[in-house]
């Protein structure tokens, strides 16, 4: 079997997916219409043409604007259900989904509206497709730590539905150290800590995420490669890295897919996984991310099997569940 044939069929897990980043233009237009919200594009085609990004901030501006049309519980259900339908098509059997409450609460949408819509879709996906999932509540790092504390408070009635906390949005100038206290408190509440680090920011931010936020998995982490001592530590401490190849090229953190460091990271013994990040904006869901790398980096079947295995190994599933899934790959 070729690596491409294998990846299309094998059951896999996705560990880095922003639900707001899976908002396809078709659904965005539909929801905008039913909520009577104007979007500044004439058509789906015109909107898609705007998806040209020079950096992370260019993307975030469009991503937050797109999320503006999400108002009702049903909107969050539809958004999440669309993602699960795609998972079912691609044989993604487990998904660890990030959501950004502040993107919505800042606009006056209740925390409960967001999480109830997402939760209903999770239950439906489990029932309809047998897909397992968990939630990572991500704090927006361009906002203040006090703001993140408020979000932590709002989440507490729903603690049983949320597995982990994350840190996303504009990385440069918003180091992990800014959120040390809220992560400490989040851990006390029982949330597992993860953070975006080393996507655009320096290796120093990865050290901060490890040492100050006590994170157990890093989202992206590419820029850690600039520091051999850090690489050694990440390997030794078995820190999972949720790498997102098509995101990296779309946001110009990597100039072209042929130069993506995924293979190098694997060869160094880093615990890398492949993920889609914001698939509606970056040109492909998880299978497409794998296929691009298989093609451009000439990944072997052994490489791809390792990546799929890592996607379960570095998930937040119980050891028993991990074993059950890994037995099927
Ligand atoms: O790729 C990303 N990076 C940082 N923050 C984000 N929020 C959504 N997607 C991203
Ligand atoms: Zn991300």
From TrEMBL:
Listed binding positions for substrate are 278
Q: Which CDD domains match?
A: ADA
- Catalytic residues of the enzyme: 199 (proton donor)
**A GO biological-process term:** hypoxanthine salvage
Residues at which Zn(2+) binds: 16, 18, 196, 277
- Required cofactor(s): Zn(2+)
Catalytic activity as recorded in UniProt:
adenine + H2O + H(+) = hypoxanthine + NH4(+)
Q: How is the cofactor bound?
A: Binds 1 zinc ion per subunit.
Zinc: present as a keyword of the record? yes
Q: Does the keyword Metal-binding feature in the UniProt annotation?
A: yes
GO MF term list: adenine deaminase activity; zinc ion binding
The EC designation for this entry is 3.5.4.2
Q: What does this protein do?
A: Catalyzes the hydrolytic deamination of adenine to hypoxanthine. Plays an important role in the purine salvage pathway and in nitrogen catabolism.
Task: Give the family, as the similarity comment puts it.
Answer: Belongs to the metallo-dependent hydrolases superfamily. Adenosine and AMP deaminases family. Adenine deaminase type 2 subfamily.
Q: What protein am I looking at?
A: Adenine deaminase
What species was this sequence derived from?
A: Kaistella flava (ex Peng et al. 2021)
């Amino acid at each position: 079997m070729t690596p491409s044939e294998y990846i299309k069929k094998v059951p896999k897990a996705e560990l880095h997916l922003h639900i707001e980043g899976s908002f396809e233009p078709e659904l965005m237009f539909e929801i905008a219409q039913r909520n009577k919200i104007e979007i500044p594009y004439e058509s789906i085609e015109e909107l898609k043409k705007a998806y040209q990004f020079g950096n992370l901030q260019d993307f975030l501006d469009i991503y937050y604007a797109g999320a503006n049309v999400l108002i009702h519980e049903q909107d969050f259900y539809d958004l999440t259900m669309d993602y699960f339908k795609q998972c079912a098509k691609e044989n993604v059997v487990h998904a660890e989904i990030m959501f950004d409450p502040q993107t919505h609460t800042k606009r006056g949408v209740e925390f409960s509206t967001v999480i109830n819509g997402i939760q209903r879709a999770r239950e439906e996906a489990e029932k309809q497709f047998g897909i397992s999932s968990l939630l990572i509540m991500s704090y927006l790092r361009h906002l203040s730590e006090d703001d993140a504390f408020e979000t932590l408070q709002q989440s507490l009635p729903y603690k049983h539905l949320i597995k982990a906390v994350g840190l996303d949005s504009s990385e440069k100038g918003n180091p992990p150290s800014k959120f040390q206290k809220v992560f400490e408190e989040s851990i006390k509440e029982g949330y597992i800590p993860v953070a975006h680090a080393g996507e655009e920011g320096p290796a120093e931010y990865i050290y901060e995420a490890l040492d100050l936020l006590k994170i157990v998995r890093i989202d992206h982490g590419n820029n850690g490669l600039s520091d051999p001592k850090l690489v050694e530590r990440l390997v030794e401490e078995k820190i999972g890295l949720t790498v997102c190849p098509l995101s990296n090229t779309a946001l110009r953190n990597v100039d072209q897919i042929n130069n993506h460091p995924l293979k190098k990271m694997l060869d160094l013994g880093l615990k890398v996984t492949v993920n889609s990040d914001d698939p509606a904006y970056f040109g492909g869901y998880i299978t497409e991310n794998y296929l691009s790398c298989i093609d451009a980096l000439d990944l072997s079947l052994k490489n791809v099997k390792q990546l799929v295995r890592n996607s379960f190994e570095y998930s937040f599933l119980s050891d028993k569940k991990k074993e059950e899934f890994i037995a099927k790959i």
